[in-house]
What does this fold into?
Amino acid sequence: MSKPSLARGTRDFGPSVMVKRNYILDTIKRTFQKFGFQPIETPTIENLSVLMGKYGDEGDQLLFKILNSGDFSKDLTPKDLEDGSKKVMPKIAEKGLRYDLTVPFARFVVMNRNDLVMPFKRYQIQPVWRADRPQKGRYREFYQCDADVVGTDSLICEAEIVLMLQEILQNLGIKDFTIKINNRKILSGIAEVIGVKGSEVPLTVAIDKLDKIGKEKVEDELRERGFSKESIEKLQPIFEIQGADNQVFDKLKSWLKDSETGLKGIEELEKVWSLVQSFGLENAKTQLDITLARGLSYYTGAIFEVKANGVQIGSISGGGRYDNLTGTFGMPGLSGVGISLGVDRIFDVMEELGLFVENQSVTTKVLLTNFDAEAEKYSLPILKKLRDAGINAEIYPESAKIKKQFDYANRKNIPFVIVVGSDEMQSGELTLKNMTLGEQEKLSIEQIISRLV
It folds into this structure.
C-alpha cells in the first residue's frame, strides 16, 4: 500500500480555502466583464509545436512534456541518445501542458478568426503548469487570470489595463501596490546605443533578474553571455536613471537620442501616461521602470508588472504588448496586449496582510434541524422557500440529537440554525437561533426570510 502524497509544487484546496479563492476569482471576473471582455477556455494539453519557441530558451526548458502513448521509445536509436535530449524529445513527446494562456489564445484566434469580432477582447481563467523549482509563492501548477485585446494597436488598451489592475486590487483590499511599466522598444533602443543591436533577448533576460540578483550579478551574467566591457560600461545609465516619471522620460530621451526605436518606445509610454490621466484616474499607482524586461520573448511594446508592497512575494501580475504572436501560426501582423493575474500569489498576499473578511469561509447561512421523519418531512418545503429566496440553506441529513447538529453548524461556521421540533410544527412558528450570539426567537418563515436576506 502506497502512502498518499502530493507532487511537489502542487496543492489540495479544502472548502475554507476555496471560498477565499473563489472570492478572488469572482472579483477579477466581474472587473474583466465590466471592461467588455468575453470568456473563453482552451485545452490543458497543447501540441508542443504550438508551445515551443514562444517563451525563449529558459521558458522552453520549463514546459511539462507528455510522453506519447504506447511504446513511446520505439523510434529511438542509439545515436539519438548520444545526441542528447533535443534529439530525443521530438520522438517521444508531441504534446505538453500549457505554460501560459497567451500562446494558446493566439492559436485560438488564428483557428477561429472568421468567427471573431475584431478587436477581440477575451478573458480566460484556467490553470497552467511550469516545471519550475517550487518555493514560496511559486508553484508548478497554478491559476492564471488573463485579459487580452487583439486586433488593434491603440494605446487606449494599455491605459485600460492600468485602470483594470487598479480596480481589481483595490476591490480585493490590496491598497499598497505598484504597477511597473516599461516598453520593449526602449530596451531595444538601449541595446542599440550600447552597441549590441540584435542581442536584445540575452540583454533583457539578464536585466529582468536585476531585482532578484542585483546589479553585479547581472553584469556577471552579461559577461558570461559575451557582452564586452565597453557595452556593459555604456549600460550603466539603466542602473542610475531615477526620479519622478517625467524626469526619467527626459533622461531617457537624452540617453537614447540616437535610437529611433528607443524614442518610439518613450513616445508610446508618454501617451499611455497621458491617457490614464484623461480617464480621470486618481492616485494612479504607476511607475516607469526601465529595468523591467519580462522574460517572455514575444513582447514587443509596453510591458507591465505589479508588485504588492510590504510583503515578501514576487509579482502578482504581468503582461505586455505583442505585435506578431499570431504570425507563428500563419496570421501575421495582428497586434495584441494583455495581462495575467496570479491567483495563488494574490491569495498569499491577502493572507499575509489579513485582508480576507471574517467568516469568509461561510457558504451555508442557515441549517434546519432534523429530529425524526415527521420533522424532516415538515422541513423540506421550508428549505425550498429559503433557497427560492436566495438564502444558502441546508438540512441536517439524518435524525440526530440537537447537540450534534449544533456542533455541525459551529464547525461549518453556519451562523443560523432553524430548530423544527414538535412545538414549532404545532404553532407554525419556527425557532431561529443565532449561533454567534447564542440568542433565539420564534418567527414565521416569512419573518425569517426577511431577517436573513
In short: The chain has a mean pLDDT of 90. The chain is about 45% helix and 15% strand.
